[in-house]
Amino acid sequence: PAPLYAVAAVTAQEAWAFGDADLALHLSADFPELRSGDCASAQPLYCDAIHHGNTTGTANLRSTWNCAGARAASGGEAYYRIHSPITGRLTVRLVPLPGTDLDLIALDADGQGQCFTSLCKATAPLDGSSPEELVLDVEAGHYYVLVVDGYQGAAGSFTLETSCERPTHWP
Question: From CA 52, how far away is CA 146, in angstroms rounded?
């Protein structure tokens, strides 16, 4: 059977109109797993959401990243795209299965979500620690691509948790 998705949305201005500045949208979904490392087909991620993924069986298109130092990223990659709704901070937490050394890399992207692998914006600490977390300064309306890549051929299931720092005031 086809997966079932449910989405509800409320804008920051609508939340403010209801008098609840702390109202937030939380999404949790299991999207079909990406089976090739292609930025053009990166799966969507959203603020304040949880996503379950897996790099098992994905293609290994990149073995190094320009901001990831000398780590041997020889595992398959899973690509995710986020279209930032805010100017502020995006925090992404990668929680792999115990004993699976996956890395988290952030890339810059264009308006169609095409990533620039040469413009690596950030990476979580590449010390084998788990979970990994990275914080990005983001601009409203800009696209970013997040990559989960296996160290030395590592592959497995993981959870990505995203949160966006809400502005302290509404425009």
Answer: 14
